[in-house]
Specification:
Family: Belongs to the glycosyltransferase 20 family.
Number of strands: 16
Protein name: Trehalose-6-phosphate synthase
Oligomer: single chain
Number of helices: 15
Helix content: 40-55%
Distance between the termini: 19 Å
Shape: globular
Strand order of the largest sheet: 3-4-2-1-5-6-7-10-9-8
InterPro entries: Glyco_trans_20
Bound molecules: adenosine-5'-diphosphate, 6-O-phosphono-alpha-D-glucopyranose
Largest sheet: 10 strands, mixed
Organism: Paracoccus broussonetiae
Strand content: 5-15%
Pfam families: Glyco_transf_20 (PF00982)
């Protein structure tokens, strides 16, 4: 198996759902993982072998221009906001699209050089939508699957692109298109239905010009048992001597899609009305991400202002309401933090799945579990119907839910947790990858590509 994604683990503690899930998958299955080297290059067509792991890691180098125009530009200033319903943040420049195509073509050539004819190729995320098309143009007839970790855009939102018709065409070069949720599948099918080049076949496949593709949902998950084990390790006290007592936890990359300002506002609203003597703390771990993009600089500044304001308003000499930490935390420590937290907060305005929701549930002590507050706009909400679902746009609703969660009787906490844990167990990362790869191996092969065997 050859896996391709832009992000690849390079040593430091990782944040981001894709890397966490693929690291767990390849750790079990083995294979080759190709991704971007953290250091820039000069546009060379060679892959560097990175250090030893249970799987092979091969890295291509982006030039500084490509990092700016393909990664920060087309991937994170066009496709990311588009998929997260933030058309207002899309920044379109001709050099972005050109670099995106060029990087995809170059990576296709590098994959083409190492792929054997029977390798399965599994491409991940919006950085590489046209990769299969580029590989097909080189004559690769392998089975190629694609998994989109972020929400599938609505048909209307695709019009934001300069050439919206390319989106469906690029995707149709994959044998299998994997999406997070049933709603994502519905949006993807809507796109194909609206496209005169696509035809629906009786078995559910889609014939697109001379190609056949399939679309299915594969909800991504975590290493549930491993995470629960880490969480239960009594030896680690993540707070050392600075234990905050009763606390709520949020763990997110510092991204505008995560609804962090409203989370802080809702916590402040809760503090205004809290019962006398109650002094809970919100521990927010938010490592900065994509900081060269303006929208990320803005959200970082906005959050600092809100946190400063909330702490200035409510703090006492021996109590800081919001503890706001900007760095990555080792996974064992993170697991322990989740377990100690009375409430886990997920307030995304749009989110492919949200692994944090699953990690929080897996880390709980089933005898005395905390409560997950889960945005109804996170993919995880589709199946985790017994989480306390909230509308992150409605600050009052979130504040009320915080109060409900902190006061929730043990029996109800246990019931909700058992139901959520059942979902987390059924959508484990191994089940996710096995289901995807099995579907890729059994779906209609690339014989539909004329000329290729
Ligand atoms: P996204 O993929 O948008 O970042 P997810 O919630 O799906 O969102 O995945 C985030 C992953 O990154 C989770 O596995 C989470 O534990 C991890 N993560 C986020 N922030 C940190 C952090 N500060 N330290 C360590 N891991 C983090
Ligand atoms: C999300 C995306 C991934 C991305 C991750 C971290 O999970 O789906 O593709 O790797 O965020 O973002 P970054 O830009 O730092 O790779």
């Amino acid at each position: 198996m050859i896996v391709v994604s832009n992000r690849i683990p390079t040593g430091e503690s990782v944040s981001g759902g894709l890397v966490v899930a693929l690291h767990d998958t390849l750790g079990c299955a083995g294979g080759i993982w190709i991704g971007a080297h953290p250091e820039p290059g000069i546009g060379e067509e060679t892959l560097d072998e990175l250090g030893l792991t249970p799987y092979r890691r091969l890295a291509f180098r982006l030039t500084e221009e490509e990092q700016k125009n393909y990664y920060l530009g087309y991937a994170n200033s066009v496709l990311w906001p588009l998929c997260h319903r933030r058309g207002d943040l899309v920044e379109m420049r001709p050099e972005y699209g050109a670099a995106y195509q060029a990087v995809n073509a170059r990576v296709a050539r590098m994959v083409g050089k190492i792929a054997r004819h029977d390798d399965l190729i599994w491409v991940h995320d919006y950085h590489f939508l046209p990769l299969a098309k580029e590989m097909r143009a080189l004559g690769l007839a392998n089975r190629i699957g694609f998994f989109l970790h972020v929400p599938f855009p609505a048909l209307g939102d695709l019009s934001v692109l300069s050439q919206p018709e390319r989106f469906a065409d690029d995707l149709a070069h994959y044998n299998l298109i994997g999406l997070q949720t049933r709603s994502d599948v519905a949006r993807c099918l809507e796109m194909f239905r609206a496209d005169p080049r696509a035809e629906f076949m009786p078995d559910g496949g889609i014939k697109f010009l001379d190609r056949i593709t399939a679309v299915r949902s594969f909800p991504i998950g975590i290493d549930t048992a491993g995470f629960a084990e880490d969480a239960a390790q009594e030896a680690v006290n993540p707070f050392g001597r600075g234990d905050p007592g009763r606390f709520l936890i949020g763990v997110d990359r510092l991204d505008y899609s995560k609804g962090l300002p409203n989370r802080f506002r809702a916590f402040a609203r809760y503090l205004e009305n809290r019962p006398a003597g109650s002094r809970p703390c919100l521990v927010q771990i938010a490592p900065p991400t994509r900081q060269q993009v303006r929208a990320y600089q803005d959200i970082t500044r906005e959050l600092e202002e809100i946190a400063g304001h909330v702490n200035g308003t409510f703090a006492e000499l021996d109590w800081t309401p919001i503890r706001y930490i900007h760095r990555s935390v080792p996974r064992v420590e993170l697991a322990r933090l989740y377990r100690k937290a009375s409430v886990g907060l997920v307030t995304s305005f749009a989110d492919g799945m949200n692994l944090v929701a699953k990690e929080y549930v897996a880390a709980q002590d089933p005898k005395n579990p905390g409560v997950l507050l889960l945005s109804r706009f996170a993919g995880a909400a589709e199946d985790m119907t017994d989480a306390l679902q909230i509308n992150p746009y409605d600050v009052e609703d979130v504040a009320t839910a915080i109060s409900t969660a902190l006061d929730m009787p043990l029996e109800e906490r246990q019931r909700r947790h058992a139901s959520c844990l059942d979902v987390v167990g059924r959508t484990d990362v191994t089940i996710w990858s096995t289901a995807f790869l099995r579907a890729l191996m059994t779906c209609i092969p690339s014989m539909t590509f004329p000329g290729f065997e």
